[in-house]
């Protein structure tokens, strides 16, 4: 048995961290754990030896009003003798965005069987009006799938909106080619993500409410440790730059909104939100 480890992640001290109860997502971690928050860091003590492979967890954080000068994070793995046995330092944080008050909707799905097709439903809620002066320019919505999941969108009918729908672009962005079956507002060439192009002018007047949509995926044979679907709203690329698709939260052009959705796991009940079945945030092993 390896010594029981302790993870000690830290970031700018101006972030407010909450990691107890519902504020913590276990994701790929096993066993029980406790979390302690300090000034600019938190410690996660785990009662189960960490196995070889990827690990993942999530905590709730409130970012500061302005981006800190040093917007970087680190994570250390410490054993019971207080020795650092591994670490990742100087992890650059995302740019802090303003002007789009939004929260993630619960992730729902139709099937969680390994290797089978499933319909996932996700989205966001716009909780207040966009600012009248200089509203954010919304050019593109990107859905990033967890590793080893693959989206199965082959035509426009595979994208279904349950509540309000985002305004689609009326033409494919310059520099991209239309697919034979794809509408001008959709790019599904990468199985690990979806790109939906928006009408920038119409998006300036988004109504308060929920924007939930669904699409088909294939569930992998093994659920990855980082089992998170991410929705990112991206700004336009720089003027006169060669057009490239926004790839998500780590892209050069992420917009003012990034929302994560946790998570599909094998077994148990199947929440299927758009049809009114039971909804839940994560499905535990059955």
TrEMBL record:
Top-level taxon: Eukaryota
Positions of the UniProt region annotated as Disordered: 254-286
Protein name, per record: Beta-mannosidase
Basic and acidic residues bias spans: 272-286
